[in-house]
Amino acid sequence: MRKRLEDFNSGSWREQYHYRSFLPTQINYEWVWEDGEINVLLEKATRSLSELNAYTQIVPDVDLFIKMHVAKEANTSSKIEGTKTEMDDIVLPKSVVLPEKHDDWQEVQNYVQAMGQAIDELNRLPLSFRLIKTIHSTLLSGVRGEHKQPGEIRKTQNWIGGSNPGNAHFVPPHQDDLAELLSDLEKFWHNETIFVPHLIKCAITHYQFETIHPFCDGNGRIGRLLIPLYLISFKILDKPSLYMSAYLEKNRNEYYEALDNVRGQHNLLGWCKFFLDMLTQTAEGGKQTFQKIKQLNDEMTNLAMGMQKRGGNALALIKYLYENPIVSIRDVSNKLNITYPPANQLVQDFVEKGVLAPYQKQSNAQLYIFSKYMDIFNINA
Fold first, then answer.
1. Distance CA 154, CA 39 (A)
2. pTM for this one?
3. CATH of domain 2-289
4. 3-class DSSP state for residue 223?
């Protein structure tokens, strides 16, 4: 059945005990529209994503840099939920993380692990709530929310804002409605009898997931993680190179307003426009990041090749630094399989050449930071 975005009815309010919950309309339909602006925004987003994806094919050792993309997204997505870590905190080994930051550090590491786990599973399985429940369990393991049914669809009512459902900003559907809603959403992903561009399906998916709010905790992080997973699952992207959290953190009010306008004013069309513009701007930012990475990589390769006999170790150290931008001399010695004195000399050479600098935030360990690399990910954080 075809439905127009312009005619969307978001759902209805259900009377519960002392509160009302929102029952969203099911979305497994063929969506069409008459507003020509959607076509233009769809074209822009598709082009930007294609160009971003091309960078993941031409940048050498791209998986090293994807790891930092994931780390940045994990940090920013967790920040939205209240963690207080910075990019340099999350690339430190736990042994040197300040005690007061251990919990926040672990939340971010769980997000990184969940993303890696999801990408690995997508090589074998289609996108499904079975997969989403698995990564939700990883996300909440050993951190805040670990007692809120990790990996399980909620069996109780939750709410957004306020101290209880009666004074909440928004109350998602009652738990008894979740099975049917989630089944409808999963069918929408894999329905081959409807013809809807994947970017529109991804937009509707994110709205519907956040409106259903299927878990007791972690819905925001899972909902944001679901965007790159959808795009990878349906071959829009080859690598997890697109992350929305930095954009959403900067435009938080507009984001929540756009979601509220769907629920309150049935404005799914406006949400799709917001989402497509968000995809475009985020992809453009990702392209700039890859351009800077490629430029830095060329600079570092030339520097290492100019170090003559030590060029091989220098190249190996640079590759190691892309994965671990904060290191100790002992780390370098172990990774390069060289004794401490030549490792120390190599690190000091990198300090003299401006590649490494002493890391000042830790007094209990002598560490060095690859600042030029870290700065690329901090600029838009």
1. 37
2. 0.91
3. 1.10.3290.10
4. helix
